[in-house]
Amino acid sequence: MVTKRNNVQIKAVKLIQRVLAALLSRPVSIYYRDEPMMALYVTSSCQLSCQECIMSHLMEKASQYQMDIEEVKLLIHYSELSKYKFHYRLTGGEPLLWKHLLEGVRLLRLSDSCMSISIISNAINIDAVTNELVEMVDCIRVSRYLYNTKNIALLRKKYPHKILVAGKEKFIKNPLEKVAKALPVECNNPELMFYNNKVYACPHSKSISIQAGVSMIQSNDIGENFKEGLDRIRHNMEEELCSRCISNTPVRKAMEKILNISGSNPNPERLAKWYKPHFRFK
Ligand code: SF4
After folding, report:
1. What is the CA(241)–ligand 1 centre distance, in A?
2. Model confidence over 120-176: pLDDT tens digits?
3. 35-274: which CATH topology?
4. Whose CA is nearest to atom 3 of ligand 1?
5. Disulfide-capable partner of 86 in 38, 106, 176, 237 (CB 3.0 to 4.6 Å)?
6. Residue ranges covered by each domain of the chain
Protein backbone atom coordinates (compact mmCIF):
# COMPACT_ATOMS: atom_id res chain seq x y z
CA MET A 1 0.00 0.00 0.00
CA VAL A 2 1.34 3.46 -0.88
CA THR A 3 1.16 5.65 2.24
CA LYS A 4 1.25 9.44 2.32
CA ARG A 5 4.84 9.27 3.56
CA ASN A 6 5.78 6.87 0.75
CA ASN A 7 4.18 9.23 -1.74
CA VAL A 8 6.33 12.12 -0.55
CA GLN A 9 9.43 9.92 -0.74
CA ILE A 10 8.54 8.74 -4.27
CA LYS A 11 8.00 12.33 -5.42
CA ALA A 12 11.31 13.38 -3.88
CA VAL A 13 13.16 10.53 -5.63
CA LYS A 14 11.56 11.42 -8.95
CA LEU A 15 12.50 15.08 -8.54
CA ILE A 16 16.11 14.11 -7.78
CA GLN A 17 16.10 11.81 -10.81
CA ARG A 18 14.82 14.60 -13.06
CA VAL A 19 17.46 17.04 -11.79
CA LEU A 20 20.20 14.44 -12.20
CA ALA A 21 18.97 13.56 -15.70
CA ALA A 22 19.07 17.23 -16.68
CA LEU A 23 22.54 17.71 -15.17
CA LEU A 24 23.96 14.55 -16.71
CA SER A 25 22.05 14.92 -20.00
CA ARG A 26 21.09 11.26 -19.80
CA PRO A 27 18.33 9.18 -18.25
CA VAL A 28 18.95 7.89 -14.74
CA SER A 29 16.04 5.48 -14.35
CA ILE A 30 13.27 3.80 -16.30
CA TYR A 31 11.31 2.48 -13.34
CA TYR A 32 8.14 4.24 -12.31
CA ARG A 33 7.12 2.22 -9.28
CA ASP A 34 4.14 4.39 -8.44
CA GLU A 35 2.79 4.54 -12.00
CA PRO A 36 1.47 1.79 -14.31
CA MET A 37 4.10 0.02 -16.40
CA MET A 38 3.39 -2.40 -19.24
CA ALA A 39 6.11 -4.65 -20.61
CA LEU A 40 5.53 -5.79 -24.18
CA TYR A 41 7.18 -9.15 -24.80
CA VAL A 42 7.80 -8.40 -28.48
CA THR A 43 10.01 -11.28 -29.56
CA SER A 44 11.62 -14.51 -28.37
CA SER A 45 14.62 -13.94 -30.63
CA CYS A 46 17.92 -13.15 -28.96
CA GLN A 47 21.58 -13.48 -29.98
CA LEU A 48 22.54 -14.71 -26.49
CA SER A 49 21.48 -17.55 -24.22
CA CYS A 50 22.26 -16.27 -20.74
CA GLN A 51 21.66 -19.01 -18.21
CA GLU A 52 20.42 -16.49 -15.69
CA CYS A 53 17.78 -15.01 -18.01
CA ILE A 54 14.44 -15.25 -16.26
CA MET A 55 12.60 -15.22 -19.60
CA SER A 56 14.58 -18.08 -21.15
CA HIS A 57 11.84 -20.70 -20.63
CA LEU A 58 9.28 -18.66 -22.56
CA MET A 59 11.89 -17.83 -25.18
CA GLU A 60 12.57 -21.55 -25.70
CA LYS A 61 8.94 -22.63 -25.67
CA ALA A 62 7.74 -19.92 -28.09
CA SER A 63 11.02 -19.59 -29.95
CA GLN A 64 9.49 -18.19 -33.16
CA TYR A 65 7.33 -15.59 -31.45
CA GLN A 66 7.28 -12.09 -32.92
CA MET A 67 4.52 -9.81 -31.71
CA ASP A 68 2.18 -9.06 -34.59
CA ILE A 69 1.35 -5.42 -35.30
CA GLU A 70 -2.35 -6.29 -34.89
CA GLU A 71 -1.58 -7.26 -31.27
CA VAL A 72 -0.07 -3.83 -30.67
CA LYS A 73 -3.14 -2.20 -32.17
CA LEU A 74 -5.42 -4.25 -29.90
CA LEU A 75 -3.42 -3.29 -26.80
CA ILE A 76 -3.61 0.38 -27.77
CA HIS A 77 -7.31 0.19 -28.65
CA TYR A 78 -8.37 -1.38 -25.35
CA SER A 79 -6.01 0.74 -23.29
CA GLU A 80 -7.52 3.89 -24.76
CA LEU A 81 -11.07 2.53 -24.45
CA SER A 82 -10.43 1.69 -20.78
CA LYS A 83 -8.70 5.06 -20.25
CA TYR A 84 -5.52 3.33 -19.10
CA LYS A 85 -2.12 4.96 -19.37
CA PHE A 86 1.21 3.13 -19.21
CA HIS A 87 4.93 3.54 -19.24
CA TYR A 88 5.60 1.05 -22.04
CA ARG A 89 8.73 -1.09 -22.01
CA LEU A 90 9.80 -3.30 -24.90
CA THR A 91 11.32 -6.56 -23.69
CA GLY A 92 11.83 -10.11 -24.92
CA GLY A 93 14.06 -11.73 -26.08
CA GLU A 94 15.94 -8.87 -27.65
CA PRO A 95 13.60 -6.04 -28.75
CA LEU A 96 16.05 -4.74 -31.37
CA LEU A 97 15.34 -8.01 -33.25
CA TRP A 98 11.58 -7.37 -33.34
CA LYS A 99 10.42 -7.32 -36.96
CA HIS A 100 7.95 -4.49 -36.33
CA LEU A 101 10.15 -2.35 -34.11
CA LEU A 102 9.73 1.00 -35.86
CA GLU A 103 6.06 0.61 -36.70
CA GLY A 104 5.22 -0.73 -33.24
CA VAL A 105 7.01 2.09 -31.44
CA ARG A 106 5.40 4.65 -33.74
CA LEU A 107 1.91 3.33 -32.92
CA LEU A 108 2.59 3.31 -29.19
CA ARG A 109 4.02 6.82 -29.29
CA LEU A 110 0.94 8.18 -31.02
CA SER A 111 -1.45 6.62 -28.50
CA ASP A 112 -3.11 8.59 -25.69
CA SER A 113 -2.28 5.62 -23.48
CA CYS A 114 1.47 6.23 -23.75
CA MET A 115 3.29 7.98 -20.90
CA SER A 116 6.74 6.87 -22.01
CA ILE A 117 8.54 4.18 -24.01
CA SER A 118 11.74 2.44 -23.05
CA ILE A 119 13.60 -0.45 -24.69
CA ILE A 120 15.57 -3.05 -22.74
CA SER A 121 18.41 -4.19 -25.00
CA ASN A 122 21.67 -6.14 -25.10
CA ALA A 123 23.17 -3.52 -27.47
CA ILE A 124 24.27 -6.08 -30.04
CA ASN A 125 22.08 -5.21 -33.04
CA ILE A 126 22.79 -1.50 -32.85
CA ASP A 127 22.04 -1.05 -36.56
CA ALA A 128 18.39 -1.04 -35.47
CA VAL A 129 19.01 2.02 -33.31
CA THR A 130 18.22 4.68 -35.88
CA ASN A 131 17.69 8.40 -35.35
CA GLU A 132 14.00 7.87 -36.02
CA LEU A 133 13.72 5.20 -33.33
CA VAL A 134 15.70 7.20 -30.77
CA GLU A 135 13.55 10.25 -31.34
CA MET A 136 10.40 8.27 -30.53
CA VAL A 137 11.58 6.57 -27.35
CA ASP A 138 12.40 8.03 -23.95
CA CYS A 139 15.19 5.67 -23.12
CA ILE A 140 17.13 2.63 -24.34
CA ARG A 141 18.44 0.71 -21.35
CA VAL A 142 21.37 -1.39 -22.41
CA SER A 143 22.82 -4.23 -20.36
CA ARG A 144 26.60 -4.06 -20.10
CA TYR A 145 28.20 -7.48 -20.36
CA LEU A 146 31.82 -8.50 -20.79
CA TYR A 147 31.72 -8.22 -24.54
CA ASN A 148 29.49 -5.35 -25.68
CA THR A 149 31.29 -2.33 -24.24
CA LYS A 150 32.32 -1.07 -27.68
CA ASN A 151 28.74 -0.95 -28.91
CA ILE A 152 27.62 0.75 -25.72
CA ALA A 153 30.32 3.40 -26.11
CA LEU A 154 29.14 4.05 -29.69
CA LEU A 155 25.53 4.42 -28.60
CA ARG A 156 26.41 6.65 -25.68
CA LYS A 157 28.48 8.90 -27.86
CA LYS A 158 25.73 9.26 -30.44
CA TYR A 159 22.72 9.46 -28.12
CA PRO A 160 23.99 10.47 -24.65
CA HIS A 161 20.58 11.77 -23.53
CA LYS A 162 18.74 8.51 -24.32
CA ILE A 163 21.08 5.68 -23.33
CA LEU A 164 21.00 4.21 -19.84
CA VAL A 165 23.62 1.56 -19.00
CA ALA A 166 23.01 -1.18 -16.45
CA GLY A 167 25.97 -3.32 -15.41
CA LYS A 168 25.02 -6.98 -15.93
CA GLU A 169 28.42 -8.65 -15.79
CA LYS A 170 27.23 -10.37 -12.66
CA PHE A 171 23.79 -11.86 -12.36
CA ILE A 172 21.65 -13.40 -9.69
CA LYS A 173 20.50 -16.72 -11.06
CA ASN A 174 16.82 -17.52 -10.93
CA PRO A 175 16.07 -20.68 -8.88
CA LEU A 176 14.78 -23.86 -10.51
CA GLU A 177 12.97 -24.92 -7.34
CA LYS A 178 10.89 -23.08 -4.77
CA VAL A 179 13.00 -21.23 -2.23
CA ALA A 180 12.20 -21.77 1.46
CA LYS A 181 10.86 -18.82 3.46
CA ALA A 182 10.02 -16.87 0.30
CA LEU A 183 6.78 -15.57 1.77
CA PRO A 184 5.54 -12.96 2.44
CA VAL A 185 6.40 -11.76 -1.05
CA GLU A 186 8.34 -8.53 -1.47
CA CYS A 187 8.06 -8.06 -5.22
CA ASN A 188 10.18 -5.30 -6.69
CA ASN A 189 8.65 -5.53 -10.14
CA PRO A 190 5.23 -3.91 -10.49
CA GLU A 191 4.95 -4.28 -14.28
CA LEU A 192 2.19 -5.99 -16.23
CA MET A 193 3.15 -7.92 -19.35
CA PHE A 194 1.46 -8.11 -22.74
CA TYR A 195 2.13 -11.26 -24.74
CA ASN A 196 0.12 -13.16 -27.32
CA ASN A 197 -3.05 -11.12 -26.85
CA LYS A 198 -3.06 -11.63 -23.09
CA VAL A 199 -2.24 -9.25 -20.28
CA TYR A 200 -0.26 -10.95 -17.51
CA ALA A 201 -0.41 -9.83 -13.89
CA CYS A 202 3.39 -9.82 -13.78
CA PRO A 203 6.22 -10.00 -16.33
CA HIS A 204 7.89 -13.18 -15.05
CA SER A 205 5.14 -15.65 -14.20
CA LYS A 206 4.67 -17.05 -17.71
CA SER A 207 8.31 -18.04 -18.08
CA ILE A 208 8.64 -19.33 -14.51
CA SER A 209 5.47 -21.43 -14.80
CA ILE A 210 6.81 -23.13 -17.94
CA GLN A 211 10.02 -24.10 -16.14
CA ALA A 212 8.16 -25.23 -13.03
CA GLY A 213 5.44 -27.12 -14.92
CA VAL A 214 2.80 -25.14 -13.03
CA SER A 215 -0.56 -24.46 -14.63
CA MET A 216 -2.61 -21.61 -13.18
CA ILE A 217 -4.44 -18.47 -14.27
CA GLN A 218 -1.91 -15.69 -14.79
CA SER A 219 -3.55 -13.33 -17.26
CA ASN A 220 -6.66 -11.71 -18.70
CA ASP A 221 -7.49 -11.75 -22.39
CA ILE A 222 -7.04 -8.37 -24.00
CA GLY A 223 -10.37 -6.54 -23.91
CA GLU A 224 -12.10 -3.60 -22.27
CA ASN A 225 -10.99 -3.02 -18.64
CA PHE A 226 -8.36 -5.73 -19.00
CA LYS A 227 -6.68 -4.75 -15.72
CA GLU A 228 -9.64 -5.84 -13.63
CA GLY A 229 -8.83 -8.83 -11.44
CA LEU A 230 -5.08 -8.79 -12.12
CA ASP A 231 -4.24 -7.92 -8.49
CA ARG A 232 -6.09 -11.02 -7.32
CA ILE A 233 -4.36 -13.15 -9.96
CA ARG A 234 -0.98 -11.83 -8.81
CA HIS A 235 -1.82 -12.61 -5.21
CA ASN A 236 -2.96 -16.15 -6.07
CA MET A 237 0.35 -17.09 -7.66
CA GLU A 238 2.59 -16.02 -4.78
CA GLU A 239 3.02 -19.49 -3.27
CA GLU A 240 3.78 -21.31 -6.54
CA LEU A 241 5.56 -18.72 -8.66
CA CYS A 242 6.87 -15.83 -6.54
CA SER A 243 8.74 -18.36 -4.41
CA ARG A 244 10.81 -19.14 -7.54
CA CYS A 245 11.38 -15.55 -8.70
CA ILE A 246 14.37 -13.32 -8.05
CA SER A 247 12.16 -10.23 -8.15
CA ASN A 248 10.91 -11.46 -4.79
CA THR A 249 13.43 -10.06 -2.29
CA PRO A 250 13.62 -13.13 0.03
CA VAL A 251 14.37 -15.32 -3.02
CA ARG A 252 16.89 -12.84 -4.37
CA LYS A 253 18.76 -12.83 -1.08
CA ALA A 254 18.96 -16.63 -1.08
CA MET A 255 20.51 -16.98 -4.55
CA GLU A 256 24.13 -16.97 -5.62
CA LYS A 257 25.67 -14.51 -8.04
CA ILE A 258 27.15 -15.85 -11.24
CA LEU A 259 29.30 -14.31 -13.89
CA ASN A 260 27.62 -13.75 -17.23
CA ILE A 261 29.82 -15.00 -20.04
CA SER A 262 27.13 -16.23 -22.40
CA GLY A 263 28.47 -14.15 -25.28
CA SER A 264 31.49 -15.38 -27.21
CA ASN A 265 35.06 -14.19 -26.66
CA PRO A 266 34.76 -12.14 -23.50
CA ASN A 267 37.71 -9.82 -23.04
CA PRO A 268 40.19 -11.75 -20.81
CA GLU A 269 41.22 -8.65 -18.85
CA ARG A 270 37.64 -7.76 -18.00
CA LEU A 271 36.96 -11.42 -17.25
CA ALA A 272 39.85 -11.46 -14.76
CA LYS A 273 38.59 -8.27 -13.18
CA TRP A 274 35.17 -9.77 -12.52
CA TYR A 275 36.19 -13.33 -11.71
CA LYS A 276 35.67 -14.41 -8.14
CA PRO A 277 36.11 -18.05 -7.07
CA HIS A 278 32.48 -18.37 -5.99
CA PHE A 279 31.18 -17.44 -9.44
CA ARG A 280 30.05 -20.40 -11.47
CA PHE A 281 31.11 -20.35 -15.11
CA LYS A 282 28.85 -21.55 -17.85
S1 SF4 B 1 7.86 -11.83 -7.41
FE2 SF4 B 1 5.96 -12.75 -8.19
S3 SF4 B 1 4.70 -11.02 -8.89
FE4 SF4 B 1 6.83 -10.28 -8.66
S5 SF4 B 1 7.73 -10.50 -10.72
FE6 SF4 B 1 8.19 -12.39 -9.57
S7 SF4 B 1 6.55 -13.85 -10.07
FE8 SF4 B 1 5.87 -11.79 -10.65
Report:
1. 7
2. 999 999 999 999 999 999 999 998 887 788 999 999 999 999 999 988 777 787 888
3. TIM Barrel (3.20.20)
4. 202
5. 38
6. 35-274
